[in-house]
């Protein structure tokens, strides 16, 4: 009993599917015929039948008319192409904004690039800006002078002797007298 119902349901489903496909085919055929009729109407309206005249002057006039028509059609085509490009750009911008709002931004894979700091700054700031990343270039030259502390440290020599001298009360007394 259950299998009969299933068979009936699948048969009905397949019948409905085939009926829908037939309807879709007839609709597509109707649309194609309507487009063909529309095309014929447009051509008959915009392109009258060509009658080739016999004299040279009439042929030249016809050529001039055809050239003028070609120029106007080219201008229209150019205008529509520009409008199409503009709308495509707007669509891309809007879809990018929508993508950003959703937060589903896919990071592009990054490649490792060996580049010096100078080259990186030049790439970022442009070739107009002269940038030098040589950090040692602008440092001030300092002559090494012997300071008194360094002399004292050299004179002290072994640290053990220094500690022995300053140990006990005598060492404290010496430190107090010398002012260290």
Describe the 3D structure.
With 180 residues, this protein is an all-alpha fold. The protein contains six helices and no strands. It is elongated.
Strand tally is 0
Instruction: Report helical residue fraction.
Output: over 70%
Please give the count of helices.
6
Mean pLDDT: 79
Along the chain, the helix and strand elements come as: HHHHHH
SS class: mainly alpha
Q: Please indicate the percent range of residues in DSSP E strands (runs of 2 or more).
A: under 5%
Uncertain segments are: none
What composes the largest sheet? Answer: none
Rg, please?
47 Å
Ends distance: 113 Å
Gross morphology: elongated
Features:
acetylation, 0% strand, actin binding, elongated, mainly alpha, 180 residues, actin-binding
How would you briefly describe this protein structure?
This protein has 180 residues and is an all-alpha fold. The protein has six helices and no strands.
Write the layout of secondary structure elements.
Layout lengths: L1 H45 L9 H47 L14 H9 L22 H9 L2 H8 L1 H11 L2
């Amino acid at each position: 009993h259950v299998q009969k119902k299933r068979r009936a349901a699948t048969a009905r489903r397949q019948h409905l599917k085939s009926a829908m496909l037939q309807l879709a085919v007839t609709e597509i055929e109707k649309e194609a015929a309507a487009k063909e009729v529309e095309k014929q109407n447009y051509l008959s309206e915009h392109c009258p039948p060509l009658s080739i005249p016999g004299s040279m002057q009439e042929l030249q006039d016809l050529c001039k008319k055809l050239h003028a028509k070609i120029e106007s059609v080219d201008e229209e085509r150019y205008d529509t192409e520009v409008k199409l490009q503009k709308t495509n750009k707007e669509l891309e911008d809007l879809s990018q904004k929508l993508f950003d709002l959703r937060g589903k931004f896919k990071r592009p894979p990054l490649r490792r690039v060996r580049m010096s700091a100078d080259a990186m700054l030049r790439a970022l700031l442009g070739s107009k800006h002269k940038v030098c990343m040589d950090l040692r270039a602008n440092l001030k030259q300092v002559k090494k002078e012997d300071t008194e502390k360094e002399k004292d440290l050299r004179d002290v020599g072994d640290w053990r002797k220094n500690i022995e001298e300053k140990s006990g009360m005598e060492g404290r007394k010496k430190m107090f007298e010398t002012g260290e």
